[in-house]
Amino acid sequence: MNLAHSLEDGLDGAKIREGSAFTQVMGERAMSSATIKIYLPHGDPKRLRTGEISNWSGKAVAGPRTELGQILKRDEASCAGVYILSGVDPFTGDSAAYIGEAESIKDRIKQHLSKDFWSQLVFFTSKDENLTKAHVRFLEGRLITLANGAKRVNLTNSQASSSGNAVAQL
């Protein structure tokens, strides 16, 4: 299971526990309960889906590469955010992922069409469009740090972001 699938599992209703990668990225907070909303536009959890958590200003969008056109037409794809491209390394057969950030998810993902390994995309944006370049660079770096630490996926990023190691108040 790769990092994107782990995040998708969290979006599919798995219990989010304290100390998990999700809470490490999104911030530890006392949460006695939360509502996770998953929207399946086609009624199929393997196709395009969006996710939101109550009292969280973020939004997740995920789907297969085969539906990239529909995904990139969504309003959220024009926003700043972080994204994960995931799939299988064609040379090793191992899980592979690319973690990135962008001021426009749509424009940046189009630049990755030449990367053949990825079959799934998940990205996170802010519902209130309040993410700055500094925020998304920090989140990208934090995701890269967590992915490297988990050692569950081979990252194809050519360089690691150092932003995730910085102490920041978001």
Provide tags for this entry.
single chain, 170 residues, alpha+beta, seven-stranded mixed β-sheet, 5 helices, 25% strand, disordered N terminus, disordered C terminus
Mean pLDDT: 82
H/E series, N to C? HHEEEHEEHEHE
Report on the biggest sheet.
Answer: 7 strands, mixed
Beta percentage is 25-35%
Summarize the SSE layout with pairings.
Elements: H1 3-11, H2 21-26, E1 36-39, E2 49-53, E3 58-64, H3 68-73, E4 81-88, E5 95-102, H4 105-110, E6 118-126, H5 133-150, E7 154-155
Parallel strand pairs: 5-7
Antiparallel strand pairs: 1-2, 2-3, 3-6, 4-5, 4-6
Describe this structure in words.
The chain is of the alpha+beta class. It has one domain (3-165). Helices cover 26% and strands 25% of the residues. The protein has helices at 3-11, 21-26, 68-73, 105-110, 133-150; strands at 36-39, 49-53, 58-64, 81-88, 95-102, 118-126, 154-155. It has a seven-stranded mixed sheet with strand order 1-2-3-6-4-5-7. Strand 4 and strand 5 form a beta hairpin. The radius of gyration is 15 Å and the shape is globular. The model is unreliable at 1-22 and 164-170 (pLDDT under 50).
Q: Would you kindly provide a brief summary of this structure?
A:
This protein is of the alpha+beta class. The chain has helices at 3-11, 21-26, 68-73, 105-110, 133-150, and strands at residues 36-39, 49-53, 58-64, 81-88, 95-102, 118-126, 154-155.
